[in-house]
Amino acid sequence: MTESKKILVAEDSSVIINLTKNVLLFENYSIAAVKNGKQVLEKLANEDFDLILMDINMPVMDGIECTKAIRELEDPKKASVPIVAITGNYKNYTLDDFKKAGLNDYVQKPLDYDYLLATVRKHLEK
């Protein structure tokens, strides 16, 4: 059996974290969760992840700022980790805005968990 893929969920809503964790754990992914972009960078400094689900609107450091910081990391593996934006304010951004920030994809809120899983799989099976 292959080692389960590690996903970091960056989201300030405990409800969304718990729902997302439950859906992803059902698929045997290994999940870690943090509440803001600063915690993402701290977690990433000590661990490798196969994918990051990044809320765009978080306190302390938002998802766009955090993604830009990740893309500038010296470790090429960490700097190129796939990052999927999770946002309720997708109308404020275009896919081009997300791409310029270094995001690979996005899923809008309210989350459609079938679509979220399909998006996660798409980036983990590359």
For this entry, give a set of tags.
five-stranded parallel beta sheet; globular; 5 strands; 6 helices; kinase; alpha/beta
Describe the structure.
The chain is of the alpha/beta class. It has a single domain, classed as 3-Layer(aba) Sandwich (Rossmann fold), CATH 3.40.50.2300. 44% of the residues lie in helices and 19% in strands. It contains 6 helices and 5 strands. It has helices at residues 14-26, 37-46, 63-71, 76-79, 95-101, 113-124, and strands spanning 6-10, 30-34, 51-55, 83-87, 105-108. The protein has a 5-stranded parallel β-sheet, with helices on both faces. It is globular, with a radius of gyration of 13 Å. The two termini are 19 Å apart. The relative contact order is 0.18. The mean pLDDT is 92.
What about the largest sheet?
5 strands, parallel
Query: Low-confidence runs (pLDDT<50, min 5 residues)?
Result: none
Helix content: 40-55%
From the alpha-carbon coordinates, what is the Rg to the nearest angstrom? Answer: 13 Å
CATH class: Alpha Beta
Tell the overall outline: globular
Order of helices and strands: EHEHEHHEHEH
CATH homology-level superfamily: Response regulator
Number of strands: 5
Tell me the CATH topology.
Rossmann fold
β-strand amount: 15-25%
What is the first-to-last residue Cα distance?
Answer: 19 Å
Mean pLDDT, as a whole number?
92
Count, helices? 6
Please state the structural category.
alpha/beta
Topology:
Layout: E1 6-10, H1 14-26, E2 30-34, H2 37-46, E3 51-55, H3 63-71, H4 76-79, E4 83-87, H5 95-101, E5 105-108, H6 113-124
Parallel strand pairs: 1-2, 1-3, 3-4, 4-5
Helix pairs in contact: 2-3
